[in-house]
Automatic annotation (TrEMBL):
Domain spans labelled Acyl-CoA oxidase C-alpha1: 276-436
Acyl-CoA dehydrogenase/oxidase N-terminal domain span: 21-126
SUPFAM superfamilies with a match to the protein in the record: Acyl-CoA dehydrogenase C-terminal domain-like (SSF47203), Acyl-CoA dehydrogenase NM domain-like (SSF56645)
Domain of life: Bacteria
Similarity-based family: Belongs to the acyl-CoA oxidase family.
Protein name in the entry: Acyl-CoA oxidase
Record-annotated Acyl-CoA oxidase C-terminal domain positions: 497-634
Source species: Actinoplanes couchii
One Pfam family it belongs to: ACOX_C_alpha1
Amino acid sequence: MINGVDAAALTAVLDGRWAHIRQTVRDELGAEFVTVPGESGADARERVTRLIRELPTDVGVASAFPVAYGGSADPGGSTVAAEMLGQVDLSLMVKAGVQWGLFGGAVVALGTKHHHDRYLRDIISADLMGCFAMTETGHGSDVQQLRTTCTYDPSSGNFVLHTPHEAARKDYIGNAAKDGRMAVVFAQLITGGERYGVHAWMVPIRDEDGNPMPGITIGDDGPKAGLLGVDNGRLSFDHVTVPRDMLLDRYGQVAADGTYTSGIANDTRRFFTMLGTLVRGRVTVGAAASAATRNALTIAVRYGDARRQFTRPGDDREVVLNDYLAHQRKLLPALARTYAYVFAQEELAVTMGEVQTSTGPVDEHRQRELESRAAGLKAVQTWHATSTIQMCRQACGGAGYLAENRLPGLKADTDVFTTFEGDNTVLLQLVAKGLLTGYRDAFGSLDGWGRATFVAEQVREMVLERTAARSLIQRLVSAVPGRDEEVAVTDRGWHLSVFEDREKHLLESVIRRLRKGAATKKDRPFDIFNDVQDHVLSTATAHIDRITLEAFVAGIDRTTDPAARALLAKLCDLYALTTIEKDKAWFLEHGRLTPARSKAITAVVNDLLRELRPHMRTLVDAFAIPDEWLNAAILREEPARQDTMAKEDDAIRQS
Ligand SMILES: Cc1cc2nc3c(=O)[nH]c(=O)nc-3n(C[C@H](O)[C@H](O)[C@H](O)COP(=O)(O)OP(=O)(O)OC[C@H]3O[C@@H](n4cnc5c(N)ncnc54)[C@H](O)[C@@H]3O)c2cc1C
């Protein structure tokens, strides 16, 4: 039995390294910044455009910019600030993400000093609103195949930007429909009759009066499922003149005579290096999805503590929803996973900060590991948001369906998080490719799956790449005694070794299948990979589950308050065991669990739910979301309603 857990002690652990930013956002963003349920699209756009300029600078959303231009060069902190904004209003968070993360981030990462000098201050102040125009109607996931062209003409010294057909128009672009005056436009660079792959240009799209610039057609994507405050639109270019110095030329330069130069000779490698520098958007989207999940869970848990249905025989009062095992089964495993992601996300933000502020030579291994984790954690956190917010909606019954109770809005706004900043399925393939290639060398090239000559030991090495708490984890794993049946199902070392073993086994068997495919389909690398795609996705998920568990274990290790530590340990048990339970079929099929042990896990999960029941409220209070941000009518009204009914029942009984 765990007693005396102080929510504030948990908050301190959850807030982590950037506690000061989280607290500043809580202190400074009041009700005027919070989502207005049920507002019209036009009102939402007007409100969000106004608020983006009123955001206090010290809340840190734009803090990733270089110090010389008024930023604080804190990439990790800026993702945390954006995550916090996601708890206030998701449209505001996405609009900020487009302006400072995508548009501003691209200028910083892909541009050079003269672009920075000319534009960064106005971007930070939001005097210059801009777009990140990469996606086209015809190409979203496979952006290397973009069809927009930007062709250099040495006689004029300008580029000519052109949309060759409708499938090449830029689509879904944030800030395009109403506010953007400039766009970072991605297109195929052509000079001297040669193509050099996708590059980016700064392109003015509206004049001072808000009218489209000559040759540019701007459209509105129209009503969307959610994110009503964001003006997503379309851009087409009809032979638009773009001065040579508007090419964001950090990775590829075009001289006045049209000569192309780049420090990275291979077009594909150059493009993926450019994309790699833009990883912050993905890190932010995963974080904001989890922030919205925490809002939904807080609403559902608090409602479940107040709402009563059905009486126990012999009792006068009805039972609160959270006392039902079925309700605990809905809420507590989701809560445990949400906690796990807080720790994994913090590790990711720390790594990103270190990689992006490092002044030494580029550490390619760390950069790839960062991209892989960002992709994987974005995918699992956004899927978790979609399923958990829907579950919370149902856990609040009919009340969960009313806009005034916020859950429909959270659901609609986070839905697209599974798609933008990289479709989740495509992202998980990226994670698996990172694991499989063992950094490419073993395979020859990313496309050359058929030529795989893999040595089994490499798998182990890759599975065990560094994490924050590697030595602690190794110690726990090596302390697991003998046969599984002799180890308690709550043994942390056992959890860690089971997660690690599943990942390793999946990876080895994918490799075996790839090699088998290579033997029969020698010249069809696409088919070789496509035939194991399901297996590849399971491997990526197992990898992310494992690093998430390890981050949770490291988080507990950092917790000094004994009661908070004990509660987190129980929650971590629940995360580990419900993850195993969800994939029971795999563990049983592969002889990793006996039927008896599998049943024992279900029984222990139910025991854990009972143990954690008294702490549900503390666990959500620890998220420290101000009531005015939650802004859910049921949280104000339901406790009062229950009081009234209880008094009425008492009066009837006494009369
Ligand atoms: C609200 C909103 C805002 C956006 N904002 C911007 C913005 O500001 N700037 C910008 O440039 N873009 C933006 N986008 C675009 C977004 O990034 C793309 O929608 C996204 O990358 C997916 O591309 P797509 O829509 O073409 O889907 P597709 O790539 O066509 O995917 C459709 C389906 O096919 C599946 N699929 C695709 N490839 C594979 C594969 N190899 N294997 C298996 N399955 C596959 C996917 O999993 C998905 O289920 C925005 C989109 C939306 C909806």
